[in-house]
Specification:
The complex is a heterodimer of chains A (258) and B (305). Chain A is built from 11 helices and 10 strands. With 258 residues, chain A is an alpha/beta fold. Chain A has a domain of 160 residues: 3-Layer(aba) Sandwich (Rossmann fold). Chain A has a 6-stranded mixed beta sheet, with helices on both faces. A 4-stranded antiparallel beta sheet of chain A has the order 2-1-4-5, covered by helices on one side. In chain A, β4 and β5 form a beta hairpin. The longest helix of chain A is centred in the middle third of the chain and has 22 residues. Chain B is mainly alpha-helical. Chain B has a single domain, classed as Orthogonal Bundle (ABC transporter involved in vitamin B12 uptake, BtuC). Helices cover 73% and strands 4% of the residues of chain B. Chain B has a two-stranded antiparallel ribbon with strand order 1-4. In chain B, α10 packs across α11. Classes of the chains: A alpha/beta (258), B mainly alpha (305). Chain B: It is a multi-pass membrane protein. Chain B: It is found in: Cell membrane. Chain B: One of its GO terms (molecular function) is L-valine transmembrane transporter activity. Chain B: Its main location: membrane.
Amino acid sequence: MTALLACSGLTKRFGGLVALDGLDFAVAQGETIGLVGPNGSGKTTFFNVLTGLYSPTSGAASLDAVDIFGKSPQSIGRAGVARTFQRCRLMLDQTVFDNIALGVLRAKPLGLLSTLFRRGRLRADLDATIARAHQLACRFNPQLGAALFRPAGDLTMIDRRRVEICRALIANPRLLLLDEPSAGMTPDETRRLMDDLLAFREEAPHLAVVLVEHEMDVIRRVSDRCVVLNFGRKIFEGLFDAMIEDREVQTAYLGSGQ
Amino acid sequence: MDMGILAQHLFNGLMLGMVYAMIAVGFSLFFGVLDVIKFSHGDVVSVGAFAALGGASAIGLLVDMPGLSLLFGLLAAIAVGGLAGVVIGGTLVLPLRNAPPVNVLLVTLMAGTILREAIRLGVPNGGNPKPFPVLLPQWQITAGSFSIGFDSVLILIAGIGIILATHLLITRTRIGLAIRAVAQDVDVARLAGIDFRRTVLGTFALGSALASVAGLMLGLYYREVNFSMGLVLGVIGFAAAVVGGLGSLLGPILGGFLFAFVQTLVTIVLPTASAYKDVVAFGVVIALIGLFPTGLIAERSSERV
């Protein structure tokens, strides 16, 4: 199996702090990886480096042989990487539709002239985007589809997560990074969100997913493979059952007991 | 009080409110995308007024066509105002993005002084008020004791049209979505493929062109421009934006009309004390800020978990 995302020796230093320490990481097409580790182990830093929000210190990263190491968030997004955030980052004053449509903004030119003089084309584009956003939102929750033109701030927590995932998915990414989707949600909401994700997974079998999560039930349910980080280094890579038996992983999470 | 004079005052208040709103919107746009206060914004009003004066006068020397002069005056105001916004944004504000906000405040305050002094010293006899050419038809509309110039009505309609167009641009277009996205969350916007720098500079061009056109309108309305006219207008625009809600779009428009309404009210109710209209209006601003610290239309920010 050839890797879609291939990182090697990925390192990020903040002054003297090594947040990511020579990380090798690979994801195949259609694979879901559960990324696990104690707080501060570098999971979110990894996402931030991967999406270009932080510039990496050294290493290499490529998506389907396209170099994405140290590139701008714009070009990494264009290459096919989309993500959500641990703390839901939506425009709460804006409509659900505007939030989702942001995901495909890059697809068309932004120029003032095209805005003024190509109304017909834009109208058709807009209708297509509305149809796609509606379809995506309905897949997660029919009521969310009906609330497409309501402010995102009116939504419940789980629907906000869904909007964030719709924003990531509408661009048809090849790699989806989910940063702790269960944060701030009840176990029941988390379970429903995972149902959504698994259902979507079946319709988009080539999409690769990296999921950061503390809820072990979630990891067990959706991931094909697990990677454990501690102090910015990979301490485990393999199947879920092997992971929870692994002595080093247990030590990292629970302490050495000495 | 005579109804005609009352209507005259109200019309004047509407006109002022529109000008304040056009200036206040800029403050709110800049604060939206960069969280900064650009204090040179008032002086961009003067720059626009003098650019329009220059453009219109230049055409006036060649041909006697007021319409053509007005068109060139408008183009000059938009071009010079927009350019001033891009230059100030690109060379002074963006490089200080990670510096304390006080630095941006100070730097733009000084940039405003430079603009003001450049007009005073660069324009022949620039220290004195300059007459603005008459470029609109001078018909009078009379109803009883109420009499209003057709040109004033045109200016008011144009101003309201510009504010509406700006609102549509921000809320209904892809450019507007890019501006709103950058205002809310720069990281998310960049991941969505939005060029941060271009969007910020575009926003500065837009806000500054609005202030600049407001300067042209004041010239047309009062038939006079002055190198320091932007000083108080900048403070009023800033106050209107803060009262209405910095970062929102409707807030500063509301704030601008509110400020003008209070000024007009003082003039109507206390004609003998009309010299104190700014004092009263700023007093109301202070009271409103105390009552609504986040502005009349508060921005709904992402919750912090």
